[in-house]
Amino acid sequence: MFAVTYEPLDPAPLVDAVRRDESGAVALFYGVVRNENMGRSVQYLEYDVYPEMAVKKMREVADEVRAKYPITGIGVLHRVGRLEIGETSLLVAVSSAHRVAAFEACHFAVDRIKQVVPIWKKEVWEDGEEWIEGHMPGSERTEAGE
Amino acid sequence: MFAVTYEPLDPAPLVDAVRRDESGAVALFYGVVRNENMGRSVQYLEYDVYPEMAVKKMREVADEVRAKYPITGIGVLHRVGRLEIGETSLLVAVSSAHRVAAFEACHFAVDRIKQVVPIWKKEVWEDGEEWIEGHMPGSERTEAGE
Amino acid sequence: MITVSVRLFAGLHQLIGEREIEMQLPDGATVAVLRDTLGARHPIVEALLPTLVCAIDEEYVESSQVLANGDRVALIPPVSGGAHALLDVRANPSAEGG
Amino acid sequence: MITVSVRLFAGLHQLIGEREIEMQLPDGATVAVLRDTLGARHPIVEALLPTLVCAIDEEYVESSQVLANGDRVALIPPVSGGAHALLDVRANPSAEGG
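The joint structure predicted for all components is written out below.
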C-alpha cells in the first residue's frame, strides 16, 4: 500500500496490508505536525506533492528496503494539503519475522522517503511562512512573509 | 497508558495518549503472533501474566527510557490469554520531537519489556506445546506434550 | 506456623493446576524453605524450582528472605527475554519473534 | 517551435500562481533553455531556478536533455531531506522533525 492523500491517515489498513503470517513484528512510524521548528512557533503546515512521482518513489524506496533487510512487508501513506498541529503527515509500516529488522528497516525507509519523495512542506507562523526545501536560495524571500 | 488486557489491542488511543504538541514523530511497535518459531509450525499462543507486577514493571521501563532518551511520551499495552496467528500481543508507542529518538527509544523499550515484564507465552503446535521461559529445565518435559 | 498464599504462573500454574495455593510453613521460614516445601508437595514441579524467583508485594526478593504470616508470594518463572538477570539467577533469552 | 507543459510545485507554484503552464520553446531546446526562459518570463522565481531539477514522465532528467513537442515537464524543488543528491545538484537537508 503506497498512497498520497488529502484525507486523514488511517494506520489500521496499512498495518493489515503489510502483515503476513510469518511476521512477528510490525514497526509503524508516524510523522506528526509539531508546534515548533528551529525555535519558531508553527501554526500549521501545508504540504505540496507531485503525486504520480511521489508514489513511484515510495515504491522504489520499498524495493531498496526489501533488498537491504529481511522484511515481510512494507507500506507508505503520506497526507498532503493543510495539516494542523498533532495531525499525522506520514505513516511508514514495515513487518518482519523479528523486531530488529522491522525497526531498522522502518527507520531506514523513513530516512529515504524524506530524501527522495517529491513532497514539500510549508511552515506557517504567526508572522510569515516558508517552504522547507533544503534551504533553497529563495527561502530568505519567503521568510519575509510574502 | 500502561495496561494488560485479555481483549484485542487498539493502537489509536495509545498513540493519542503518548503524543504531545511537541512531538514530531511517534514510533509504534506491534508484537504479532507468527506462524512459525524455531522451525516449528505454531497453532496459537497462550500468554500468562502476573498483572499487578507487569504494569509496575512497564512503568519502570518507561522511567528508564525517559532517563535515557529525549522522548515526549511512552505507553505500553500487552494482551494475554489465547492469541491466534496474526493477532497483536504487544504495543509499545514512543513519541519524540525527532524520529531518531522515537525509533531508538521504542526499540530499547521493547527489548527491556521482554526482559523484565512478568508475562510468559506458551507455544502450541499440532503435536505438543511449550512454555517459552528462557529455556527453563522443565521445558523438555512440556515439549513431550503434556 | 505461618500461612502464606502462593501465586503460580505459566508452566508452574499448568503443572499444579491452581492459580493460587496456601502453604503452612514453620516460623522463620525463608523463600528457600517455601520452594523446598512446594517441591516436596508437588514433585512434578521440582525441576522448575531452581529457575523461579520470588516476589512479595510486587517486589523481587532473595531466597534468604524470611516470610511473614499472611504474605502473598508470587513464584515467577524466567521471562523469555531474561528477567532473571535482575537477580543473577539465570538469563537464557529464547529466540523469539516480535 | 515546440510546446511543452510545465508543472510547478511548492514555492514555485506559489510564486507563479499556477499549477501548470504552457511554454513555447525553439526546436532543440534543452531543460536549461526552459529554465532560462521561465526565469525571463517570471523574474520572481529566478533565484529558485538553479536549485530545481526536472522530470519528464516521472523520471529525473539532466539539464542537457533535449525537449520534445508535447513533453510534460515537472520542475522539482529540493526535497527537505535532500532529494537532489540523486542528481548531484545540491543536498542541504533541513533540520526537520519527524
